[in-house]
Amino acid sequence: MVYFVATPIGNLGDISLRALDTLREADVIFCEDTRHSLKLLNYFEIKKPLVACHKFNEFSAAEKLLALVKEGKNVAVVTDAGTPVISDPGNLLVQALRDAGAEYTLIPGACAFVAALVLSGFPADKFAFLGFLRGKNSEKKDFLRRYAEFDGTLIFYSAPQDVDADIKLLAEAFGDRDACAVREITKIHESVEPFRLLQGLSGEKRGEYVLLVQGAEPRENPLNLLSEEEHIDFYVRQGMSVKEALKAAAKDRGVSKSDLYKFTIKEKK
């Protein structure tokens, strides 16, 4: 059995009892950075064989993992902080296990972007987590343009050395919107700083950041600027029946069909 185990993103007290039991019962632990994970394991007095599993060796690590599964071993998979797979290694392991029909599960826990969304106060009923911006600037801009009209909260990870450049790209792609920078989550210097994209973020940049951006404002449907008769007639000219055009126009305007019915009477004569 393979267990993907979420680990603390700062405060070690956030590890769950189930996560500790899983790590103690594992035969082998796959780690993003064995040196980093060793500090966590030593703190909780857990001693297990460790196998490196990072973005540069995940294919070969998947082969080792499947071999251990065939031997009947219990394997735990952890990353440096937070939940494996979420902007961390682990996705290829999940795919390999799924394709092989092997058993695996998640021991849930801390996740930085979820914590930041809660702390930001931005709407959480609709959001898109987009992780780190990667590639050349032109590739980043093309990527961001795809989300310019998304009306939910947009969430990004950003390293301290990239924060200013990332915010500049966000401002170019989305214009001047409300934003929020959350950093050092669960740590002593945790901070939540609202700002405007064009204003940028002041101060020295330290720690890992989660950047949250307000969603796009809904745009007025240009058809709603027409008169009721013109709106219905537009759809009729597209080949719809009067009944279909009435239904489409009512949906656009957010009204009932009965509210627009009087504007179709002349069409029936």
TrEMBL record:
GO CC annotations, alphabetized: cytoplasm
Keyword field: Cytoplasm, Methyltransferase, rRNA processing, S-adenosyl-L-methionine, Transferase
Protein's name according to its UniProt entry: Ribosomal RNA small subunit methyltransferase I
HAMAP family membership: 16SrRNA_methyltr_I
GO terms assigned for molecular function: rRNA (cytosine-2'-O-)-methyltransferase activity
Superkingdom of the organism of origin: Bacteria
Lineage: Bacteria, Bacillati, Bacillota, Clostridia, Christensenellales
Gene3D superfamilies assigned to the protein according to its UniProt record, in alphabetical order: Cobalt-precorrin-4 Transmethylase, Domain 1, Methyltransferase, Cobalt-precorrin-4 Transmethylase, Domain 2
Record-listed E.C. numbers: 2.1.1.198
Similarity comment: Belongs to the methyltransferase superfamily. RsmI family.
Functional description taken from the UniProt entry: Catalyzes the 2'-O-methylation of the ribose of cytidine 1402 (C1402) in 16S rRNA.
Organism: Candidatus Borkfalkia faecipullorum
Record field: catalytic activity: cytidine(1402) in 16S rRNA + S-adenosyl-L-methionine = 2'-O-methylcytidine(1402) in 16S rRNA + S-adenosyl-L-homocysteine + H(+)
